[in-house]
Here is the input.
Amino acid sequence: MSDRGKIVIGLIIFVLIFTLPMTYNMVAKNKAVGAPELEIPPEAGKECVRSTEYMRPFHMDLLNEWRDEVVRHNDRYIEGPDGAMIEKSLSNTCLDCHSNKENFCDRCHNYLAVYPYCWDCHTTPEETAQPELVVAQQPKEEN
Amino acid sequence: MSLWFSIIVILVLIAIPWVGAGIPGIQTLFGVVIPYIAIAVFLVGFVLKVLKWAKSPVPFRIPTTSGQQKSLPWIKSANLENPHNLAGVIGRMLLEVLFFRSLFRNTTTAINEGDKVTYGSTKYLWAAGMAFHYGFLLIILRHFKYFVDPTPQFVNWLQYMDNFFQIGLPIIYLTDIVFMAGVGYLLLRRLFDAKIKYISLPSDYFPLLLLIGIGTTGILMRYFTKVDIVSIKELGVGLLSFSPVVPEGISAVFFIHLFLVNCLLMYIPFSKLMHMAGVFMSPTRNLVNNNRVKRHINPWNYDVKVHTYEEYEDEFRDVMKGAGLPLDKEPAKEKE
Here is the structure.
């Protein structure tokens, strides 16, 4: 005898598994349409520390570099694009302009399932605005 | 020879999208047309190959019997080594498919102390094989975030585990290291073991180099050259929901990565990489050893015309009697 029946069943299972992403896309709800839009509040400054082309792929490297320089070498300031000295700080510099985490950081991060550990320690401006949260998070807050 | 041939083929395969992606308008070819062709070739080729194999008749049980067969009730039998029922076969297959058990038994022969031949267990190939296969599986599963939207929860769990030690930034994926180490070992053993090098063919080097190329471009994109992954997800989800778009600003490295993956997909049905289906169809593993319990009749047996001794004696009884030969049945007239 041959096992054709069993093999065909196996093949069907294989094809179903392989086409799973396509099936998922067909049945998935609240699917994003196109790339996420980022929002920067109008009161934000004109120029960022670096260009958008640099920041889009490399912002995590810059933040990591700053973190090391500040924490390990007490090297806290850098010359900004307009010549003024700016503090190397996520909370005090980046979040000044990009103040809305939900409409800025999270848009791409959620779309791409990236969950950076920045927020394990840092707070967002909205969180800081809520007094009870500040008290609760005081010990964790970075200077 | 085999090695250089494979290297040249890989370099050509890298050069095609590298040059091609720079030509305006042709990105649709590398981003949409070729991926669809690759998926179609893979699926159709895979199914046809398996159906072709399925035509082979399986008249008898030919499992490898590496343990005591089931016999008398007071003799202990090894159901995994010599399965006598379906449970035994399923157990044996699971161990083979999930843990590469037959490779685990790999041995090596060496000449020691001058002229003494020694046989020893060698697990490096098994370990590298496990590392490579499971690394690759986890990497493919992790890539679901580029295939579908919204990202399924299991991708988050995988990424969490993969990023567990939070080394570097972007955090180094442990599977990247495991995959590259595994596949690297598989290539190096072919290059540095003279015996293995002697029997290695382009079909051995090519898939390994292809996988190394895919891994290297992936690692380059994540940690070094960087790419616009938002656009790449748009491309991926678009492709796999049959509404393809090619966003602007995707770098050539990504097209090389994608093209190599497409080459791998198209190469699988025609190569030894079909072991992914073949492992399930190995008669020495997936058959119950019940030859002595159940009669297996060859399905293509035809009715053989036999001439039994009884019929022979009936035909020649008188002659045999005349010649004084002994007979089973004496001629009828003698009995009267």
Q: What stands out?
A: Chain B has 16 helices and two strands. The interface with chain A takes residues 42-43, 46-47, 50-51, 53-59, 144-145, 147-152, 155-156, 159, 166, 169-170, 226-231, 233-234, 237, 240-242, 245, 247, 277, 280-281, 299 of chain B (CB under 8 Å). The beta strands of chain B are 107-112, 116-121.
